[in-house]
Amino acid sequence: MPKKGKLTQLMAVLGSILAWLPLLAPLFFALGSLFRGGSFLFDYLMPAELFPVALLGGWLLLWAAIRARAYRGWIGWSLLASILLLVGSQALAVATGIASGRTPMSSPWFYAVVAGLILFTLSLVITAVSGVRLARDLFKKD
Asked: CB-hemisphere CA count at 13 Å for 16?
């Protein structure tokens, strides 16, 4: 029997909020700078910088998914993919000299690092969307 109690619901809601925070923060700050009379400055590295927040949210979502016996695969695999893609892209940036500036940004390695960051962000989106779906299902009346 799946556990759909208050603790599972709380973990799903809090995990979803924490998973979405690194994804929505760059947009929020970019719109804030635009409305203050500046330009639209979008920091595409912010989801990677705020990854500890998303990781905490992902662990809460995974725990809630295991308790509820729903969305375990989507949340678990996308969380694992986001960890591996972030570590992999950072390791590639350090190994190739992109991180230190030794290798120019016109190098194919730079595009490989950016592709890893894009895939990392997409895996975070899958985790966050799965968390919202889990929370929605947990609050449904049977």
From this structure: 17
The token pair at 13 is 């809601």
Spatial distance between the Cα atoms of 72 and 50, rounded to a whole number of angstroms:
23
Amino acid of residue 109: W
Q: Which two tokens stand for residue 123?
A: 């895996």
Residue 1 confidence class, pLDDT cut points 50, 70, 90:
very low
Closest CA to 16 of 118, 137, 116, 117: 137
* Residues across the chain: 142
CA–CA dist 126, 120 (Å, integer): 10
The terminus-to-terminus CA distance of the chain in angstroms comes to: 14
Q: d(Cα 42, Cα 122) in Å, to the nearest integer?
A: 17
Q: At what angle do helices 108-138 and 72-96 cross, to 10 degrees?
A: 160
Beta strand ranges found along the chain (DSSP E)? none
pLDDT at 142: 67
Rounded Cα distance between 138 and 124, Å, is: 21
pTM of the model as a whole: 0.89
Q: Which residues contact 99 (CB under 8 A, 6 or more apart)?
A: 90, 93
Q: How many CB atoms lie under 10 A from the CB of residue 82?
A: 26
